Amino acid sequence: MNEKLLEVKDLVVQFRTDRGKVTAVNGVNFELYRGQTLGIVGESGSGKSVTALSVMRLIPNPPGEIARGEIFFRGQNLLHLPLDEMRRIRGNKIAMIFQEPMTSLNPVFTVGNQIEEVFALHQQEYSKAERRNQGIELLKMVGIPSPERRYLEYPHQMSGGMRQRVMIAMSLACRPDILIADEPSTALDVTIQAQILELMKKLQSDLGMAIIMITHDLGVVAETCDQVAVMYCGQMVEKANIKTVFSRPRHPYTKGLLESIPSYDSTKNKEKGRLPTIEGMVPSLFDLPTGCSFQDRCNFVTEDCRGRKGMPQLENLALGHEVSCFNPIVV
Amino acid sequence: MTEQVVQPLSNGKVSKDLNNRPILEVRNLVKSFPIRGGILGREVGAVKAVSDVSFTINRGETLGLVGESGCGKTTLGRSLLRLIEPTSGDVIFDGIDVTKLNPEDLREIRRRMQIIFQDPYASLNPRMTVGAILAEPLLIHNLCGDKESRLKRLFQLLDYVQMPKDTLNKYPHEFSGGQRQRICIARALAVEPDFIVCDEPVSALDVSVQAQVINLLMDLQKDLGLTFLFIAHDLKVVEFISNRVAVMYLGNVVEIAESKELYGACRHPYTKALFSAIPNPDPTAKTERIILEGDIPSPMNPPSGCHFHPRCWRATEECRKTYPGVTSSTATHQYRCYNSLQ
User: Fold this and answer.
1) Distance from CA of A190 to the nearest CA of B (A)
2) Under 8 Å between Cβ of A13 and A65
3) Nearest chain B CA: its distance from A192 CA (Å)
4) Is residue A230 situated within a structural domain?
5) Is A161:A195 a contact under the CB 8 Å cutoff?
6) Which 3-state string (H, E, C) describes chain B?
7) Which residues of B touch A256 (CB under 8 A)?
8) Contacts of A194 (CB under 8 A, 6+ apart)
9) Is A258 domain-assigned?
10) Partner of A38 at 20 to 30 A CA spacing, among A60, A199, B13, B42?
């Protein structure tokens, strides 16, 4: 087995709001190994981005707060690190790219300037010329044509796909152990998305890093990930390797999510002329049902499910296939 | 609905069969936006957002329109309703040329042509109750004159989109994205239109909600006999909902065919690349992927000849010189390419 890079144990993140406390992430556990790609999927508000931000310790406090849990990076608990040590890890050992390449680059600095900032923070031994050469090298690595010229350009002179490449270049500047990609291709067109995903796969095999891929697109997960965790209302409801989840989902939510993709079972859907749906909508975090939070939308709900007070916990149903459901689908 | 009339793409001939007369015919539609420069703001050039597009839509049919951002699909959709004034070309709706109408007649025809926008957060006025939002089109078009019949109509509309009656007294911010999109659909239906332009109606929604709204649109189409132009960049959704699909690239329709035909046997290399770029939700399938190089060129300065040639792996000398004309492989399948696939 490869080296275990990250271990998140019983993570609980809460936000204080005018309407009281909400629990955005509620008892999340996962592990990440070198070279692995873990997909975290879920709808908006399911807590996937908050999970990622907690690993980086970027939850704005106040209003947010990591109420409970432990995050181990190579054996070191990140939550107990003093801020200046955390800063040495952030962007250096664990890097992150965000969804919006338009807003996450600074419009008043050149691209080169922004890449060099990473070196100024984490590689202070570099001379000015070294920084520049390394920066141009990075742009070359992410496949930007004529990198010397692009190095001096501002973000607005670039297309969305190019900007996302720059973001990737910046995040890889220090050869991180873990790259967290929060919806890296959502804002891009499909042909550009294909380019970016291909690039990430290639860089991963070249550099041997682990990736946490956060997305709502199950297609992207199927293409890029080894492991997948499905989140709903702040909980991981199903976790397994990718083939298992896509061919034999055991949690009703995962099954519903898969079936609502038009091409998942396209011949059957076309015949029937409609798509299978998950009824209703994601409940508000202020107003979650007691017990299983999916019970009101579930097609497999039983009286027993409704009667239970506690939340279902992730349980190992088969080797490496964890599901949190009182009444998992039998396959 | 399934039987297709021969509909040549650009030679302007219309089928004489009245029963199968297309509800909408677009002929050589062009929309160019001026680029102004210098201190005097003089016109220094033009962006052809839509250049020479022709197609027809039959009654009760859904025509899907796909393409990447900036290809002109939204401009095309809006210029059909003259929300954007087309530069030249004709839009013939049920025998009437929309581009030649005076404002009064245009308002009347817009009763029959409606649009649903992409962002349900931006397209509903936050200061109006849902009741006021839904009643507005009725008041503008003098439908359901008295209060009682209007209220009855509003309840009927909510029923169409499966929303509870107390929705009328609430404000848009009280609803989720999917519910807001239902309200937008109800608003479009208020004036009993024949034709609706759906401009990316589900792209802002979560996957599970997306499926609900798609089903709703398809049910309404069946029940009310609507015709849709369905604009989207999500090819999976378009394949599912459309009878025919048109693919746009830099202002031109490069390929148009029946949905099955297009997804099974497309002719244009761009269509092929677009389809192969869709992430497949089946981890065991090994799809052959064509990854296009580079970005979409700027429409301000499109490449010579076929606009797609700098990214195309089949491009030849000819492609660089002149824009390819329309080729028909079957009665319902047209494309613009010199070196088509198969």
Assistant:
1) 6
2) yes
3) 7
4) yes
5) yes
6) CCCCCCCCCCCCCCCCCCCCCEEEEEEEEEEEEEEEECCCCEEEEEEEEEEEEEEEEECCCEEEEECCCCCCHHHHHHHHCCCCCCCEEEEEECCEEHHHCCHHHHHHHHCCEEEECCCCCCCCCCCCCHHHHHHHHHHHCCCCCCHHHHHHHHHHHHHHCCCCHHHHHCCHHHCCHHHHHHHHHHHHHCCCCCEEEEECCCCCCCHHHHHHHHHHHHHHHHHHCCEEEEECCCHHHHHHHCCEEEEEECCEEEEEEEHHHHHHCCCCHHHHHHHHCCCCCCCCCCCCCCCCCCCCCCCCCCCCCCCCHHHCCCCCHHHHHCCCCCEEEECCEEECCCCCCC
7) 208
8) B276, B277, B279, B289, B291, B292
9) yes
10) A60
B291 neighbourhood in chain A, CB within 8 Å: 191, 194-195, 198
- A166-179 mean pLDDT: 91
Measured CA to CA, the distance from residue A67 to residue A279 in angstroms comes to 32
Choosing among A246, A264, A281, A282, which should be mutated to test the B contact, i.e. which has the most B CBs within 10 A?
A: A281
* Position A164 in a domain: no
Which residue among A192, A218, A262 sits closest to B240, beta carbon to beta carbon? A262
pLDDT tens per residue, range B45-99: 888 899 899 999 999 999 999 988 888 899 999 999 999 999 999 999 999 999 9
Distances in Å between the Cα of A129 and the Cα atoms of A33, A138, A173 are 35, 14, 15
Condensed to tens digits (0 to 9), the pLDDT of residues B199-225 reads 999 888 888 888 889 999 999 999 999
Contact pairs from chain A to chain B, CB under 8 Å: 123
From the list A232, A37, A264, the residue with the least C-alpha distance to B279 is A264
**Inter-chain CB proximity B291 and A262 less than 8 Å:** no
> pLDDT at residue B10 above 60?
no
Residues of A in contact with B178 (CB under 8 A): 281
CATH number at residue A60: 3.40.50.300
Angle at A114 between CA A111 and CA A119, to 5 degrees: 130
d(CA A231, CA A47): 7
Number of domains in chain A: 1
- Say if A190 falls within a structural domain: no
Asked if B211 and A260 come within 8 Å (Cβ–Cβ), the reply is yes
Q: Is A279 exposed, middle or buried (0-12, 13-18, 19+ CB in 10 A)?
A: exposed
Q: Among A31-45, A225-239, B5-19, B157-171, which stretch is predicted with the lowest mean pLDDT?
A: B5-19
Inter-chain residue contact A222 with B282, CB threshold 8 Å:
yes
Where in the sequence is the domain holding A326, given as residue range(s)? Answer: 1-93+225-268+276-290+312-331
The predicted model scores a pTM of 0.84
**Residue for token digits 């009444």?**
A327
Is B96 in CB contact (< 8 Å) with chain A?
no
With a CB cutoff of 8 Å and minimum separation 6, the contacts of B222 are: none
B236 and A258: CB-CB below 8 Å?
no
